[in-house]
Each structure stands twice: as C-alpha cells, then as structure tokens.
Design goal:
- This protein is of the alpha/beta class.
- It folds into 2 domains: 4-30 and 144-313, Periplasmic binding protein-like II (D-Maltodextrin-Binding Protein, domain 2, 3-Layer(aba) Sandwich); 36-140.
- It is built from 14 helices and 9 strands.
- The protein has helices at 39-66, 71-77, 80-99, 111-139, 151-154, 168-175, 187-194, 201-208, 215-223, 233-247, 276-288, 291-299, 303-307, 326-351; strands at residues 4-6, 17-22, 27-28, 142-143, 161-164, 209-212, 228-232, 252-254, 268-270.
- The strands form 3 sheets. A 5-stranded mixed beta sheet has the order 6-5-7-2-8, sandwiched between helices.
- The chain is elongated.
- Keywords: Cell membrane, Glycoprotein, Membrane, Receptor, Transmembrane, Transmembrane helix.
- It holds the Pfam family Lig_chan.
Amino acid sequence: MGDQIRSAPCLNIGMESTLIYRKPGFESDLLGFVKPYTLQVWLCLASALLVVSAGTFLTQRIWFRLLHFTSADRAMMGPVQDRRRSNVVISSNGSSLLFVGQAMEFGVRGNLMRLATGTWMVMVLIVGIVYRSNLKAMLIAPKLRLPFDSMEELVETDIPCLVLEGSMIHQLFLVGQTGGRVLLVYVKCLASLQSAEAGSLLYRLRKQAVVHNDIPRAMEATKMGQHATISSRLGAETAFSYFFTLSKTCPLYMTSKPFFSATSLSVGYRKGFPLRRKMDQIFRHLRDTGILGHLYGRELPNATKCSRRLSLESDTRRALDLGDFFGVLCVYGGGVAVASLVLLLEILSRCRPFVPR
C-alpha cells in the first residue's frame, strides 16, 4: 500500500467496529412494584412522611402545653404518660395510614392542623392514584438482561468471540503485525497490543478469540449464541436486515458503544492517478447530497428495525409466565402481612385494661 493514496471521504456510516450477539429473551421483573416512581421520588415521599409525622407530633405536644386544663379535665384525659402515648399514636399512625390509603379516626385540633392534614390527604391521594395507575403495567413489564454491552463486559464472561481472519482487528489483536502501512486510527491500538500484559483486556480477548472467515457459518453461530462476533456496523446491519427479511424477527443485538471508531469509507488510488481530483469532487457531491446514504439505506431496508435501541422494543408481545405474577403476589402478600400485624397489635392493646389514675 506504499504506492496508494486515499480518496475524499465517501460515507461516514457503518465503519466503526462493534460487537453482535444473540439477543436474550424478555424476563419478568420482580421489582416492578417500586418502578412507578424513581428513587428520588421515593426519597422525597419518605422525607415528606417523616416531616408530616414529626410536625404533627410537635404540634400536638405544643397544643397540650399551651392550653390550661382544670383538674377535672386532666382526670378525664388521663395521666401524662397516656397523653404522650396518644400523641405519638396520632402523629405516626395518622400520617402513615393516610399515606397507604387506610381510613382511621384522626381527631386533629386547631385550624393549622386541619390545614396541614387536608394538604397531606390531597397529596397522598394524588400520589396513590398515579402509583396505582402505573403499578399493573410495571409489575408485568418485561425486563431485558443483556449478557454484555461492551468489550470490557464481554471479557468478564466465558463467551467466545469471533474475529474474522485477515481483518484489521485480527492483525492488531491476535497476530500483532501488519503488512505495510496501517491506518492512523489503529496506531494506538497496536501500541497497546504490544504492551499488553497477562490479565489485561487485550490478553483476555486473545484467550476467547475464535478465528475463521466463513461468514454464513459465523452468522448462524452468532444467532444460536455459540459466540459473539466483532464486526463493522455495516456488517452488523447487513446481518440484521438478512435475518429480519427471513423471519421478521430480530435475533441479534449490537452493543450500544462501538468497539473501535474508524474513519469514513474511502476509495484507494495509486499515486499520480490523473482523475483523482475529479473523482474526489464526485464523491463529495454524492456524500453532501445524501445520495450515498440513501443508497445505503435502500440496500438494507430492515436494518433500522433491529439496530435501534433495545429499550424501544420492550413492548414486544409475549406470553405471561409464572414469574410475572410473583411481583403481584409479593404486593398482596405484603399487604396481608401488614394487615395481620395491625390486627395483632390492636388485639394486644385492647387486652390491656385502661385504669385511670
């Protein structure tokens, strides 16, 4: 290649190297009952519950201290210890039960307490309606667990990786030598290869590498999950379009970030080629007008249906399995357990007779 030069960039699509592998199936998500709200919203709700409970407790305590009771009133209200216990019960149980949508006798005193309680009830009503409206969808929403989404994650698994024999990746990572000049984008990769130590990313990639150049066999093996494949984006989208045309499904997925970022596609000339300037002008015109991109998309009409982000495909229809009901059963089981605990506490508290002092 010492007597050759490159043309002007023709196409900026499909040249970066990426990883493709068999797309896993959707699984049930057992933690769906906490997903109607984000972690920040849950923390805000917990903080609001603590603030309302503490505010109710302090307001009730201040109210008892400011009012002047006669001896008859004090005898009717009971001892100080019982009043404090009642104050704690009102402040904690009232706010908590309203938060989970349970009714109770909440005897508030004063306009300020009534205003705070009404505001808390309205907020809890809105939060509960939004939560319940999204709960069913979140409990049965499928979850997609990817085996890996980068080269770093791939080498942490025991999944073999196909490197096409004779490719630039094969020369850099497995052979460690290139014939003639290499592209500037791979110079740093070659330097890191030469200094790769045992246990490094490049060293572990060599141990998992499978090398051959049988493209049809590689596509079928990748579809069956026998190995992952290092491919250009152009090759990955070609495989996506091929399988979607055959079966109307997307059996493969591509990592979200490229393994190598490469230069654009160009044409090689020999040095001194007389038509170089005219050809470069034609290539620039085809690139700037979008004709090459249009031809690329026309040849692979189904590639975008499978190469889009996997999160957009979470609405794929599938039959419900047993795991989809575990989240719902956990919610109902937790409700039954809390109700049983409340009933037990009520029975124990009523078994103790009240003796006025």
